[in-house]
């Protein structure tokens, strides 16, 4: 008799006798095969995915080496949950972190200082926010500053600050006051040590061995020196991996890019 899997039932893990493509361990053991074709021990898969979450990554990707480059194939959370050795506590922690990261990365919420409800800003370039919940719950119009979280003071709708004392963009302060450094193994000198990702605006301190950085929030790789997307920087000048870029060294940033997600 042939049995058919229910439509919503997850497929069973597929085990193969191959080396662990995460750790490189080639001991003769059965390991689980992932959707990209690479194999891993459930324990090393758990450890790798936990490390990605600890670094702030929202998505899981395969680190297997393929001719000197990472595979990079994305694994869904259901696939990871099915194939990794997750305890109930692990699973709860994974899902809580994923939910928290998703809310942070894909939505822009802050607490209204008047009604204490969480509000999502519609115009990402406007600091003057009208709380629709104050109007619906209390019948009053309440405006507050998205930057300092105080009742709005001032006329107009500026994108930099309101007129409350001390209202300033802390991220811009960090960028303005960061130290300069020479990029390791590079001809590039006096580069700002902290940059705002040119795609999503997340602040990143340079801790790498070359000038290219993969943003832990939007996962876009960019050049820390010229602030171009890595593939554009590499295309601009052959052999520019460690050397000067075709474009000049970008100065300290005075604006934070706004991540418009579609």
Describe what you observe in this structure:
The longest helix has 19 residues, at 88-106. A hairpin with a 6-residue loop joins β14 and β15. The protein is built from six helices and 17 strands. The chain is 23% helix and 16% strand. The strands form eight sheets. A three-stranded antiparallel beta sheet has the order 1-2-3. A two-stranded antiparallel ribbon has the order 4-7. The chain has 262 residues and is α+β, with helices and mostly antiparallel strands.
Radius of gyration: 23 Å
Q: Work out the helix count.
A: 6
Structural class: alpha+beta
Categorize the overall geometry: flat
Record field, number of beta strands: 17
Extract low-pLDDT stretches: 1-8
H and E string: EEEHEEEEHHEEEHEHEEEEEEH
Task: Please state how the strands of the largest beta sheet are arranged side by side.
Answer: 1-2-3
Helicity range of the residues? 10-25%
Distance between the termini: 48 Å
Mean pLDDT: 84
Proportion of beta-strand residues: 15-25%
Main sheet summary: 3 strands, antiparallel
Topology:
Elements: E1 15-16, E2 31-33, E3 39-40, H1 42-54, E4 60-61, E5 65-66, E6 69-70, E7 74-75, H2 77-83, H3 88-106, E8 109-111, E9 118-120, E10 128-130, H4 132-138, E11 143-145, H5 170-177, E12 180-181, E13 191-192, E14 194-196, E15 203-205, E16 212-214, E17 221-223, H6 230-236
Antiparallel strand pairs: 1-2, 2-3, 4-7, 5-6, 8-9, 10-11, 12-13, 14-15, 16-17
